[in-house]
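User: Predict the complex with 5-bromo-uridine-5'-monophosphate.
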Amino acid sequence: MNTAVEKFILKLSEINAVKFGKFTLKSGIISPFYIDLRDIVSYPEIVEMAVMLLIDKIKGLGFEVLTGIPYTALPLSAVISQKLNIPLIYIRKEEKSYGTAKNVIGRIAKNSKCLVIDDVITTGESKIETIDQLESEGVGVSDIVVIVDRSHDGAKYLAGKGYNLHSVVTAVEMAEVLFSHGKIGSELKNEVENFIKNMNTEGEDKAESAPVANKMTRDLLETIERKETNLVLSLDVENQKDFFEILDRTAPHIAMLKTHVDIISDYDADFPERLRERSEKYRFMVLEDRKFADIGNTVRMQYRGGIYKISGWSDFVTVHMIAGESILNGLFDGINDKSSFLLAAMSSKENLINQAYTRRVIDIGRANPSSVSGFIGFGENAEKISKLKKKIPAGFLLLMPGVGLEKGGDTLGQTYVPAGEAVRGGADMIIVGRGIYKSGDYSKNAGEYRSAAWNGYIDRIKNQCK
Ligand code: 5BU
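Assistant: Here is the predicted structure with 5-bromo-uridine-5'-monophosphate placed in the model:
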């Protein structure tokens, strides 16, 4: 153990920042010790020690801005900012609901990388909440540094989400130092060690409860494997003649057809049957991109009734989670051979979905594995897609719209990411509309998207195996 760290631990013990007894943590667990670094702000000498130890840990990490999570780490981060001459930003603790709705204070250059500083890590969950807020304001995060790591495997939990954790000292190391200096007995030292060893972090619980894919997801995965394509055609044309003509040319290339049935002006009762004939012949599944968003009772009627009777012919539907989880009951109660994709992120410029919303949507999906097959998501580049993908639990698919053969967009706010990049980043399927149905040669274009996405998929699998 580094002597500076040892001295620091003893100082913390002197000011009673490490307490032993019975303490209820935020998660409700009873802990035999508690680390409370709030008061160190009143001991300049200890602040200096903490700051120097933190600086030592962050040497060589690339970041242009730093932030401390209020309250304890905020003054420390201000000192570090001064010492390293690196700008500071911070997050308002209470959400602001008036004036400019800005919750991150300070000047942030778009896409700047930010180091997150905190006093203690217990599960990693609150770090993720902070990162969500930063990321939704365009600040990138890859590293987090804390003074004390009192987690069971917080570093692993954060690494799983794409972030590196650095810590000055662990709680077990603290207990060892205190024991070796006669500050605590061996019993207390062992109690701390056992507590940490047996602690179930929230992240771990989530990983353990990762559900097995539902039957609809398995059918879709089987279609992808069998046809060797992860292309979803979004056939947004306005009459049945064009619809079925383009479908007949492109169907061999697709694993799923995405419809906006309410765009088809001559929709009639024969449509479902004509669609079924094709889906059986060419073996693709059907996703109606209805984006249900109302209360349970209304969506139930919209899904099962009306002109389109969507539940009769579509394998999957898309669902917004804005109305809350009950929408899934309204849609799928009593139906077990249909499933959904939840909107976790959108491809349109300046849409209102932020990281915290995305995470909530994913949590709802995770809790409803029998009616949710995955998420519709978007990232502007492979790195952002990969970050999103890491948040999605095993057994759920990520479908990405806003895909072109090259980077670009349209005049109405759509953004396009190249197909290969989308899949390499982590999209399991790509959704392509105009790139195929607006092209002269539908079949050739569908084939091109298909190979770009499939090759990207193979590349990703190869890289994962390395
Ligand atoms: P495009 O022609 O490839 O731009 O069509 C994309 C399709 O995906 C279109 O049907 C949209 O309604 C749908 N879409 C999208 O583009 N972006 C999103 O975030 C979501 C759906 Br959700």
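DSSP finds 18 helices and 19 strands in the chain.
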